[in-house]
Design brief:
single chain; 268 residues; alpha/beta; Alpha/beta knot; 10 helices; elongated; Alpha/beta_knot_MTases; SpoU_MeTrfase; tRNA (cytidine(32)-2'-O)-methyltransferase activity; tRNA processing; cytoplasm
């Protein structure tokens, strides 16, 4: 993974100054891809003033109505949160662990940050494949949004930035090209390209549809299992071919179960 593969997503940001400071933090660490989900009205002049020479990040930022739309083309989505628990992903990564995980993962990915006052909602965090938290004073664990982005961006820069002496592509005064890489599998057969979020969702749903057809869900729990399959697929970085193969296995299991339940199908 390269720095240009990483997207910063801000859900429902409400403070113009914070968004500008996020742009500056990103540019400091060679990041360029910013996406906003349902932002509150933001003041352009305030954003630019706080961006301090990182206006290009703001100018090229994309806006979406929902988190699912913002992450549809990405293969891995990690949500940041200070709150943990059964319904908020009890296992989370530190920024250092998060960067190390991204480093070994193919494809494009995102770090998702919530609203300045309320953080990520439970539904937004459940959408993410993994969670991450910043270790902090338990008596006062909430960080400013731009400070949180800066801490993560620094860890990613340390692991993913070009080695000293190399010649990275230009992006304003930053370190990397604003455009994401084009994965060679589009032209070269056999290159590993992980499923994007939309494809992972579709595969997970087809798997639970198969289990439902087999009578697996006698008790509530399908939604949790569908989320589990989706997160496993994303974290494993399944390729398109592997995803198709896994779907075919479940389809064949359903077909064989149908034959077993139909005596006439054994006549052959």
């Amino acid at each position: 993974m390269y720095l240009s593969d990483l997207v910063i997503i801000l859900c429902r940001p409400s403070e113009s100054g914070n968004v500008g400071a996020v742009c500056r933090a990103m540019m400091n660490m060679g990041l360029s891809r910013l996406r906003l989900v349902a932002p509150f009205p933001l003041e352009d002049e305030v954003v630019r003033a706080r961006a301090v020479h990182a206006e290009q990040v703001w100018e090229e930022a994309e806006t979406f109505d929902t988190l699912s739309a913002a992450a549809a083309d990405l293969s891995l989505v990690i949500g940041t949160t200070r709150r943990r628990g059964r319904h908020r992903k009890s296992v989370t990564l530190t920024p250092e662990e998060c960067a190390a995980f991204f480093r070994g993962h193919p494809g494009q990915a995102a770090l998702v940050f919530g609203n300045e006052r309320t953080g990520l909602e439970a539904e937004e965090l459940n959408f993410c494949s993994l969670a991450s938290h910043i270790p902090a004073n338990e008596a006062f664990p909430s960080l400013n949004l731009s400070h949180a982005v800066q801490l993560y961006a620094y860890q990613f820069f340390r692991l993913l930035a070009p080695a000293p002496g190399t010649a990275p592509a230009e992006f304003g005064s930053g370190l990397v090209d604003a455009a994401p890489r084009t994965f060679p599998s589009q032209t070269v057969k056999g290159t590993w390209v992980p499923l994007d979020r939309t494809s992972a969702d579709t595969l997970a749903k087809s798997m639970t549809n198969t289990l439902a057809s087999l009578g697996f869900y006698k008790q509530p729990g399908r939604e949790d299992q569908e989320r589990l399959f989706r997160d496993l697929i994303a974290r494993a970085g399944l390729s398109e071919r592997e995803g198709r193969y896994l779907g075919e296995i479940f389809s064949k299991a359903l077909m064989l179960a149908g034959k077993k339940g139909n005596p006439s199908s054994d006549s052959s």
